[in-house]
Write a structure and sequence with these properties.
The complex is a heterodimer of chains A (about 100) and B (about 200). Chain A is an all-alpha fold and about 100 residues long. Chain A has one domain (about 25-105): Nitrile hydratase, beta subunit (Cyclin A, domain 1, Orthogonal Bundle). Chain A has helices at about 25-35, 45-55, 55-60, 65-80, 85-105. Chain B has two domains: about 20-50, no CATH class; about 55-200, Nitrile Hydratase, Chain A (Alpha-Beta Complex). Chain B has a two-stranded parallel ribbon. In chain B, strands 2-3 form a two-stranded parallel sheet. In chain B, helix 3 crosses helix 4 and helix 3 crosses helix 9 (about 185-190). The longest helix of chain B is centred in the N-terminal third of the chain and has 15 residues, at about 20-35. Classes of the chains: A mainly alpha (about 100), B alpha/beta (about 200). Chains A and B meet through helix 1, helix 2, helix 4 and helix 5 of A and helix 1, helix 2 and helix 7 of B.
Amino acid sequence: MRRHHDMGGLVADPVVPSEHDYAPWEKRIDAIMRLTTGDGELFAIDELRRAIEEIGPGAYDEMSYYERWITAMTNLLLEKRVVSVDELGRKMAEIEARWKAEAAQ
Amino acid sequence: MSDHPQPHPFQPDIEDSPFTRYQVMAESVIELLTEKGVFSADDMRRTLERIDAITPAQGSRAVARAWVDEAFRARLLDNVNAATAELGIDAGPIPIRAVENTADVHNVIVCTLCSCYPRMLLGLPPDWYKSRAYRSSVVREPRAVLEAFGTHIPDGVEVRVHDSTAELRYMVIPMRPAGTTDLDEAGLAELVSRDAMIGTAVI
């Protein structure tokens, strides 16, 4: 069965040769990948690919490219128990509160 | 229990904020992994600097050398990672294969499954390379896709599409344009665009 990411040969909209500069948050996600993925690292490249491919079709299409990456890497960190759900939830609340306070200044 | 229970405050809408949930997630992962000693803040800073430092100019240098040095061209076709190391370029651990354009064959690269790309030679891939449209179509109707880039490949020229994987990436060695015999290697390198090394442009 064809899985959602396997889109070679499908009929698609015309290609638009669009360019954009990478946003700082996108580069930071790229950097996380480089620091965690590879031989002897937290994840093998195939594990990351599998985690991206496991994002369901609806979410896959709604997320942008680096949103898929951070979702996949976070899922792997939870799956491998490097990070717990509780830890992640608390850290996200902390950072969100910090950034909101900074934005309000 | 209060006689008049206070309503819970609403969950703040992250949609109203200047950042997204995914950005918060990314920063949380960075902080947690730093706290756990997986990498340091310094590792993160150096990695970000490296991301900015890798541009298509690395690939262009290798192509220009191949144009002027037949023995290097053979080594590049044999093993991109080893040949580029001769130029002081770190092409990374994942094998890259060079595919050469000729008068009879035009090559173009894609990653239909995701976004595999010779990023150690060319930097981060352009948006369109990762798009559903490019990934789906270039293996189906490559000539039409190339036309969207303003690239016309004559009917007599075979178009070969190379689908990259996590284990093997490709780069295209474009044909050296006519009328460039006066140019030195550095001048030639300036002609070699990123898209020429993807195969969506000819020089």
